[in-house]
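For this section, I looked closely at the sequence of one protein beside the tokens encoding its backbone, which the following lines show:
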Amino acid sequence: MKIVGIIAEYNPFHKGHEFHLEKAKKITGADAAIIIMSGDYVQRGIPSIMPKHLRTQMALACGADVVLELPVCYATGSAEYFATGAVSLLEALGCVDYLCFGSECGEIKILQQIADVLCKEPELYKVLLQKHLKNGNAFPAARKLAFIEYLGKNKSLSCIPEQISAILDSPNNILAIEYLKALSCLNSSIEPVTITREGAGYHDQTLGGLFSSASALRQGLQDCELTKNANHTPAINHILQELPQNCHKIFKENYHKCFPVFADDFSLLLKAKLLTETKDILTRYLDITPEIANRIITFRNDFLTFSQFCDLIKTKNVTYSRISRCLIHILLGISKCDVPDQAANSRCGYARLLGFRQESSWVLTSIKKNTGIPVISKLSQPAGIDIHMLEQNIFASDLYESVVTDKYHTPYKNEYQKQIIRLTL
């Protein structure tokens, strides 16, 4: 029995995700799909639009067999840390045959060539990267410029500069390269497979077409909130059209009960946290340099909302997403020592089960038989795990739940009270 792994946020789950799930199984011939999914916070440094258990329920309803949670220190990290954590978790399961991911490029050979260079980091490439960083370029731009220049000096690669520029400008390609780097660094036997992204672009915020992007769906939900005193049923119905049919009931039953959730819902919590911090303490958090810490301290009296503060603090060389990740790390207490040690060891300390299809329980049996890490199905009975990483995750989710219950006036349930999603057909 073959198993394909998929790394996802499903923020929220939409028709494009359903298409990817179906095609991943079809082209690999896999009998089941294991999803490594971000929990209540995502890689852009914001809370997920829906709680993780709701997104798990949607994924299982649309063909996922097992959903495992990516620890929050990885889920909110840079593309490199995000990929390292997720791939190392798939590798640690010991039963995954394929890793299938979407990309704008759609050509595994070209992506692999780029990943090999970035993984090995030849001396010439490192020199060129430092040169472009010193010239004031943000890391993504510096990496692209360095790679193109390296390509011009190394004729053994089949890529052309125009290809590289387009590839390194596309978000799914960037993640694909990081997945391939992680597989190489782990010397993994998992076979990578890529599917060409179809439909709207990653950042496209217009609903409609073949597959609307998750960005467009989140923007649509936010637009509905801005007009909540008006009749926005037609707008919600428009959003529902972009979701798989199996998700409609889940969406309708939970809308305005536990979602949508936005970064600005965390504004007061973040402001309170920032008021207690000094520059020296800020630099201990993941992603925060002394320069970013200085800007936070300098401008914190002008703080109004989470999103407004990101706009205020960002610079030409430090992106909005980077600032957002910095702020979420401050709020959740994720320090630099929480991730580098794990990244160096290339492993997650445990596998946290969020949900599974009853008919696919054989996948769980296979995981438990082959994995070298604990599989957590009950928080009340963790044994032999990285307790700090787990406690960090529990705190982050409890904080998220606090915001949700305050916003929608619903009963509070902590992580210990929440049940695994079991889908029976």
Summary: Residues 263-338 form one domain.
